Automatic annotation (TrEMBL):
Residues 1-24 form the signal peptide. Pfam families: Lipase_GDSL. It comes from Asparagus officinalis (Garden asparagus). Belongs to the 'GDSL' lipolytic enzyme family. Keywords: Signal. One of its GO terms (molecular function) is hydrolase activity, acting on ester bonds. PANTHER family: GDSL ESTERASE/LIPASE EXL3, OS06G0636700 PROTEIN. This is Uncharacterized protein. The keyword 4Fe-4S does not apply. InterPro entries: GDSL, GDSL_lipolytic_enzyme, SGNH_hydro_sf, SGNH_plant_lipase-like.
Length: 349
């Protein structure tokens, strides 16, 4: 082979390498939150908020339970894939992965967590402030791996996703004493929004410029809440849906404010509420047969350890169900949520 053609191949390879790494508009997905986006960080914690056993993950690659609270992938996995990144976003605490994998996507989320420290304390999971500490540690590793300048570009161009809040209401405020004697529900929402603002400002200082702040779903339509609404025919609990709307409204006001005050920061509101409500109200038109109960076990109250292999009632085809367990969507529903958020809210990135 001539020197010229060798040189050409060499250059072409460099070019290919270069364009693959630099041309991506979103070079990495960086995730904070609760079980809606946890990819398995809780697996190593002493908590009951786990799902790294069957039948969780039975429709995941290899039928593997990963600690995702679903039968398969979760919304952030689909969002990552849509942006041309990996089809699964690895959990930061999963020792099977290293900074090489995390360079294009990393998940710090922890099932059972919330904005409020008191929420993550309920099940001894990773509080939001600790997720941020892990992120700082990650930044140092990324700079060591990619070099400072390239790492900073990735941190600037990455899409950050926050998805949490449901547990602050359902696992904390309405379940255990404490916050409800301290705050009215309106005051508590403002308290959470204040934490959200503080967190986003911290992310901004650390280099984030593109953020999806996901609102809470219609909490009253989660099977667990419907099951306790027997007097009303197990329909969605409107009081909880109203709290979801109020809280999401406050998040949107926060977004407008931060969008005005943080130069070059772009924040999109991820509207999970509308998507889930539409599907729950018209499941058939999305190809679902059941929107009121989860696939796992009786579908009315089981999640985590109660959704296990010994339960004879678990459905055989999760694609017919909106919810996988009493609290978390199926993979099919997670893809619908992700697609709606990407198409309606994240196109700007
Ligand atoms: C997770 O557990 C493994 C095996 O017990 C251990 O080697 C690893 O250090 C743990 N990781 C964390 C973050 O606790
Ligand atoms: C949550 O806990 C952390 C660590 O103790 C603390 O720094 C932070 O101020 C707490 N957040 C709130 C809102 O109290
Ligand atoms: C953010 O501000 C820009 C103008 O600076 C505006 O075009 C955009 O719609 C705003 N986004 C939100 C979510 O408020």
């Amino acid at each position: 082979m001539s020197l010229i053609s060798l040189t050409w191949i060499f250059c072409a390879q460099i070019f290919l390498h270069y364009s693959l790494e630099i041309s991506a508009e979103v070079p990495a997905l960086i995730v904070f939150g609760d079980s809606s986006v946890d990819a398995g960080n809780n697996n190593n914690l002493s908590t009951i908020a786990k799902s790294n056993f069957e039948p969780y993950g039975r429709d995941f690659q290899g039928g593997r339970p990963t600690g995702r609270f679903s039968n398969g992938r979760i919304p952030t996995d689909f969002i990552s894939e849509t942006f041309g990144l990996k089809p699964v976003v690895p959990a930061y605490l999963d020792s099977a992965y290293s900074i090489k994998d995390f360079a294009t996507g990393v998940c710090f989320a922890s099932a059972g967590s919330g904005y409020d420290n008191a929420t993550s304390n309920v099940l001894s999971v990773i509080p939001l402030w600790k997720q941020l500490e892990y992120f700082k540690e990650y930044q140092a590793k990324l700079r060591a791996y990619l070099g400072k300048s390239k790492a900073n570009t990735v941190l600037h161009e990455a899409l950050y996703v926050m998805s949490l809040g449901t547990n602050d209401f359902l696992e904390n405020y309405y379940t255990i004493p404490g916050r409800s004697s301290q705050f009215t529900i309106e005051e508590y929402q403002n308290f959470l929004v204040g934490i959200s603002e503080h967190f986003i400002r911290s992310l901004y200082i650390l280099g984030a410029r593109k953020l999806d702040l996901t609102g809470v779903p219609p909490m009253g339509c989660l099977p667990l809440e419907r099951a306790t609404n027997i007097m009303a025919g197990s329909s969605c609990r409107e009081e909880y849906n109203r709290i979801s709307r109020d809280f999401n409204g406050k998040l949107q006001v926060l977004i407008e404010k931060l969008n005005r005050t943080l130069p070059r920061m772009r924040i999109a509101y991820g509207n999970a509420y509308e998507t889930v409500l539409q599907v729950v109200q018209r499941p058939l038109s999305y190809g679902f047969e059941n929107a009121g109960a989860g696939c796992c076990a009786t579908g009315m109250f089981e999640m985590g350890y109660m959704c296990n292999q010994r339960n004879p009632f678990t459905c055989t085809d999760a694609t017919k169900y909106v919810f996988w367990d009493a609290f978390h969507p199926t993979e099919k529903m997670n893809k619908i949520i992700a697609d709606h958020i990407v198409n309606n809210n994240l196109m700007v990135f």
